[in-house]
Amino acid sequence: MKKNIITLLSFCALTAALSSCSKNNNNATPTDPNTGAVFAVTGDQVGRPGIATVFVGAADKDTFNATIPSVMSAAFQSKFVTQLQAYNGGAYTSNILGLNASAFMGVLSTDVLNVSLTGKTTYYDGTNVLTGRALNDDVIDVSLTLIFGGPNGTSNPGLTSDHVNANDKAFLTVFPYEAAPW
Amino acid sequence: MKNSKLIIACALAALTLGGGILWASDHADAPKVTGKSTDITDLYVFQGANTNNLVFVGNVQGLMSPATTATATFDENTMIEFKIDDNGDNVEDQVIQCVYKGGQMYIYGPVKPAQTGLAATVVGTASVVVPVTPYSATTPITATGSTGITAFAGPRDDPFFFDLNQFHKITGGTATGFLPTGNDTFAGTNVMSVVVEVPKSMFTSTTGKIGVWMQTHQKM
């Protein structure tokens, strides 16, 4: 009987030690206030910059936010092609990536940001294509060039750059990288 | 300075009232989210200063003036979530979940989600918890958890830059092209930002690449 009590006590001590150990194993409070909380109401969704606002028609904007990426292309590719041609007065042929309208919109209609785990991360730097999105990437000029610039990037020169080439504040070289607020 | 603030105010009014084409990255992109805590402005994913890490930046509540920013907060009823596909099928295999509670941002994952799609359940306990940096702070508050994940949450300058006003003129037919020197419509405006830096070794992808998208969800 005594032995049983001793065993029980040492088991308790062990349990207490283990649980306090696991509590110290993460930076959370011992009882996490959010574990298991359900967020069931659909909000916003975005992968690449500007896709919803450029290519999705007014009537589809809420639907696009509530369409999971794996079925986006089937639902939106042909609508995006129509919009791309509308921007170009029906004259879009290809772009500097060599993508015709169908192929280009096939890529963009799945609104997922491609990210490399092994090298430079950039939206497009002339060499690397869609390997991430850095804070200082001029995604607008890239997008305008792909949409309006034609196969050599030289068509419609008045439309392929907004001539805002950098942010209004310098980014930080260290975490959290973004500039302090105004 | 006053003038530029006026211009921004006008641009905001145009954004709110205009029925034309908007292109503010993802700012105010759709009727159901415009003006709400769920409205995403931008997603950035890039290699950290330590190239063994990947940085996720998720911004919401865009186009805030300094005065608006001073009283802006995250919403306890809104989850900000980064979704990560590890095999190219555009279905999430891992998620990083960010939930605001009691002045702190709780960061969960990267972890296999309880379900894929549009709803989310908080999985496990937080990898790191960081106090939200107040607007008045002179230095950002950061925290690093035991798994090596570093986090920040709070107001920042909107890193997006674009001459949206001129684009409106082009699409509205009152201009035929951009200006020789553009004007950043987003200059002087802020966002609420979550920044999470994650060791690349925590991703399950074996192909050297991942697909990322960002969602917001609210509690019922």
Structure write-up:
The complex is a heterodimer of chains A (182) and B (220). Chain A has a domain of 68 residues. Chain A has 6 helices and 3 strands; from the N terminus they run H-E-E-H-H-H-H-E-H. In chain A, helix 4 packs across helix 5. Chain B is mainly beta. In chain B, the strands form 2 sheets. Chain B has a 5-stranded antiparallel β-sheet. A 5-stranded antiparallel β-sheet of chain B has the order 7-5-4-3-11, with no helix packed on it. In chain B, strand 4 and strand 5 form a beta hairpin. The interface between A and B is large, with 79 and 111 residues. Strand 3 of chain A pairs antiparallel with strand 11 of chain B, so a sheet runs across the interface.
Briefly summarize what is shown:
The complex is a heterodimer of chains A (182) and B (220). By secondary structure, chain A is mainly alpha-helical.
Topology:
The complex is a heterodimer of chains A (182) and B (220).
Chain A: H1 2-23, E1 38-39, E2 41-46, H2 51-55, H3 61-65, H4 72-87, H5 101-108, E3 113-116, H6 139-148
Chain B: H1 2-17, E1 40-47, E2 53-64, H2 66-70, E3 78-85, E4 94-101, E5 104-111, E6 120-121, E7 128-131, E8 143-144, E9 150-157, H3 164-172, E10 190-199, E11 209-218
Antiparallel strand pairs in B: 1-2, 2-10, 3-4, 3-11, 4-5, 5-7, 8-9, 9-10
Structural descriptors:
heterodimer, A: 182 residues, mainly alpha, 6 helices, 36% helix, B: 220 residues, mainly beta, 5-stranded antiparallel sheet, 3 helices, 11 strands, globular
- Which spans of chain B of ≥5 residues are poorly predicted at pLDDT below 50? 1-21
Largest interface: A-B, 79 and 111 residues
Calculate the mean pLDDT score of chain B and round it: 90
Q: Give the structural class of chain A.
A: mainly alpha
Instruction: Please provide the count of β strands of chain A.
Output: 3
Which structural category do the helix and sheet elements of chain B fall into?
mainly beta
N-to-C CA distance of chain B: 43 Å
Helix content of chain A: 25-40%
Spatial ordering of strands, largest sheet of chain B:
1-2-10-9-8
Main beta sheet of chain B: 5 strands, antiparallel
How far apart the termini of chain A lie comes to 71 Å
Q: Give the C-alpha Rg of chain A.
A: 26 Å
Proportion of beta-strand residues of chain B: 35-45%
**Helix-strand sequence of chain A:** HEEHHHHEH
Taken as a percent bin, the fraction of beta residues of chain A is 5-15%
What oligomeric state best describes the polypeptide chains here? heterodimer
CA gyration radius of chain B, whole angstroms: 18 Å
- Name the shape of chain B in a single word: globular
Largest beta-sheet characterization of chain A: none
SSE string of chain B, helices as H and strands as E: HEEHEEEEEEEHEE
Helix amount of chain B? 10-25%
